[in-house]
């Protein structure tokens, strides 16, 4: 028996409606049904390129390239899809909530890889509007961390410090090291960790803000389906279609990431909890890469 396809709306968030949409996210989380958050980011390319494939380098070296790029660049978009837990593709249709946060970005002032900007323009990212109407990064960090209901933690109003205590949701991403790198930089308003224990300290920051219940699909896929490549290719192999928007727009990609995760969970008899073995590991930053 078929099922009715309900359209999914990607809610675009700009400077003027940030507080309102963060309030909506908090309300949906407070209702208790939404316990998974799938994310995707768009950023202005790579200005410190890695020579070979990401998989060919040890985790420490991958992190060094990640740090150089994240510290130098500004986020352009964040896609966020909130979803219910332990459901299959059919029952999930029409229940996902998708936001696309559009950040201030000035091509005349902010570092970028020109070829990446041209590519993103072709994907309908409006850089003229980002310059004028985009979200202030610091304001986003404050509201996202303290007002969205996604995070647990204590805020000290006296010295304006925040002590993270994990997250209220499970996080899903695809090749998520850069996603979490940019978010950690935003939330802490500091460069990523440096020094001899830099990767260890970066992972500790992710654990403290986002918790250990996070899943990177790109890390999981080769263990069970021998799928390699990007999100678009993974979706095709898994038989997942893009319901709304364009590739390399963060909102649309965050929804496709969630659908891919649900499909992948079928390899675990549809029980998301059985994927626990792979939680907390980001592709390229794991202790031992697969062959």
From TrEMBL:
EC number: 3.1.13.4
Catalyzed reactions per annotation: Exonucleolytic cleavage of poly(A) to 5'-AMP
GO terms of molecular function: metal ion binding; poly(A)-specific ribonuclease activity; RNA binding
Localization, UniProt: Cytoplasm; Nucleus
Transmembrane segments: none
Alphabetized InterPro entries for the sequence: CNOT7/CNOT8/Pop2, RNase_CAF1, RNaseH-like_sf, RNaseH_sf
Family annotation (Pfam families): CAF1
Family matches, as SUPFAM superfamilies: Ribonuclease H-like
GO cellular component, one term: cytoplasm
Major location category of this protein: cytoplasm
Keyword Ribosomal protein: no
Keywords: Cytoplasm, Exonuclease, Hydrolase, Metal-binding, Nuclease, Nucleus, RNA-binding, Transcription, Transcription regulation
Cofactor requirements of the protein: a divalent metal cation
Subunit note: Component of the CCR4-NOT complex, at least composed of CRR4 and CAF1 proteins.
Function according to Swiss-Prot or TrEMBL: Ubiquitous transcription factor required for a diverse set of processes. It is a component of the CCR4 complex involved in the control of gene expression.
Name listed for the protein in its UniProt record: poly(A)-specific ribonuclease
Organism: Kingdonia uniflora
